[in-house]
Amino acid sequence: MSWINQLEVIKDTLQTAVDSAVTRIEEIHTSIANVPLDQLEKAGGEKLEKLQAKERHEALIHSIYDTIRTVNNRVGDLASDLFEALEDGQQANKIHKENAQLKSLPDETPTGHPGSDKPLVNVVSEDSRESDTAK
What we know:
Elements: H1 3-43, H2 47-103, H3 126-134
């Protein structure tokens, strides 16, 4: 596994941990915030007003923690984009190095005729030399 993939796994783990922690903190915050609101409700008075205040407060808390989770997800997306760009850069660098190596290779010796794998100097056979000397 490449180091970029390892970083992405770590990022995913951290993102999941942050999201889970934010959810738990939200639950704790809501339960703590509800204590005084529940006491007000038990004390009597305008029950509807107190219920509306409690609902507004819970909606506000939920909105705040939703925003934190959204930021966490966007940071995770940004990190994933960064890892992808790093992987693309590594791939481009690899291709660039391969192309540079190919350009540095010496040219091959020309062949005797199309499709031949023998160099031009080996095209003349021993038999043809003997017939040339016999003339």
